């Protein structure tokens, strides 16, 4: 269950060395997956928008963002940060207050960080998405998860919800009928090595198709969109590693 306390703890963790690396890599993964979609003139719903970190990134990418969260306090925080850039709604992840196909895209970037209701959340996202879905999750087939089970690494990493790529893909196939998607992971090294000066820093940077990175992301294309020449996406200035 995503609560104000869990999100605030997560925001505090993002200020640590490991947290900053995690955020940088999650942003890179977001840029990569978004680059396959037309963005100008298209809208996106982020389910589980938290404090609005990724709503800001979606807006910078050229999309018209809407955010949904189950905490009024979190929505107030986003509203103070983003103002009129974003439309915000209070609601449950498993019962979205929107019509079928209301949004071009639906993004589940942080929705599964503290929530294990996989199938109902995916089903609702698929219902309101017209062209595609963007899904991030913490990978149970990773050293980060193994470190947590061994009571090693940052306490915050141990508290996250983890999902296997096989379970995510099979559940998506059951709901959407889609057998293919764009899938990448990042941060394959253990969390204790998510530091700028780590000897394995170069190992954490790439986005790979191998299912072993701590953060996994996938893009599901539901219906065709207008085609064109899509340029690689970079949101804002480059981040340090």
**Overall number of structural domains:** 1
Radius of gyration: 17 Å
CATH topology: Rossmann fold
Mean pLDDT: 87
Order of SSEs: HHEHEHEEHEHHEHEHE
Total beta strand runs: 8
* CATH architecture name: 3-Layer(aba) Sandwich
The general outline is globular
Proportion of β residues? 15-25%
Q: What distance lies between the first and last C-alpha atoms, to the nearest angstrom?
A: 31 Å
Which percent range fits the helix content? 25-40%
Task: Count every helix, treating DSSP H or I runs of 4 or more residues as helices.
Answer: 9
What is the H level of CATH, i.e. the homologous superfamily?
Answer: Vaccinia Virus protein VP39
Mind summarizing the main beta sheet? 8 strands, mixed
CATH class reads: Alpha Beta
Indicate the low-confidence ranges by residue numbers. none
| Structural class by secondary-structure content | alpha/beta
Describe this structure in words.
- With 241 residues, this protein is α/β, with parallel strands linked by helices.
- The protein has a single domain, classed as Vaccinia Virus protein VP39 (Rossmann fold, 3-Layer(aba) Sandwich), CATH 3.40.50.
- Helix content is 36%, strand content 19%.
- The chain is built from nine helices and eight strands.
- Strands 1, 2, 3, 4, 5, 6, 7 and 8 form an eight-stranded mixed beta sheet that branches.
- Helix 5 crosses helix 8.
- The two termini are 31 Å apart.
- The mean pLDDT is 87.
């Amino acid at each position: 269950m995503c609560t104000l306390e869990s999100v605030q703890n997560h925001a505090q963790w993002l200020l640590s060395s490991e947290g900053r690396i995690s955020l940088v890599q999650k942003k890179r993964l977001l840029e990569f997956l978004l680059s396959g979609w037309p963005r100008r003139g298209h809208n996106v719903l982020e389910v589980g928008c938290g404090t609005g970190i990724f709503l800001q990134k979606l807006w910078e990418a050229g999309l018209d963002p809407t955010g949904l969260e189950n905490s009024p306090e979190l929505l107030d925080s986003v509203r103070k940060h983003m103002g009129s850039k974003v439309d915000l709604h209070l609601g449950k992840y498993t019962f979205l207050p929107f019509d079928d196909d209301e949004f071009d895209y639906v993004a589940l970037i942080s929705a599964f960080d503290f929530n294990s209701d996989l199938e109902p959340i995916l089903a609702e996202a698929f219902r309101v998405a017209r062209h595609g879905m963007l899904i991030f999750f913490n990978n149970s087939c990773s050293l980060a998860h193994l470190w947590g089970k061994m009571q090693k690494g940052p306490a915050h990493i141990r508290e996250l919800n983890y999902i296997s790529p096989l379970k995510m893909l099979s559940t998506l196939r059951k709901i959407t009928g889609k057998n293919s998607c764009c899938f990448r992971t990042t941060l394959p090294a253990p969390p204790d090595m998510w530091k700028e000066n780590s000897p394995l820093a170069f190992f954490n940077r790439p986005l790979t198709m191998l299912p072993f990175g701590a953060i996994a992301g996938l893009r599901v294309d539901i219906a065709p969109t207008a085609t064109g020449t899509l340029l690689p996406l970079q949101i804002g200035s480059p981040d340090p590693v």
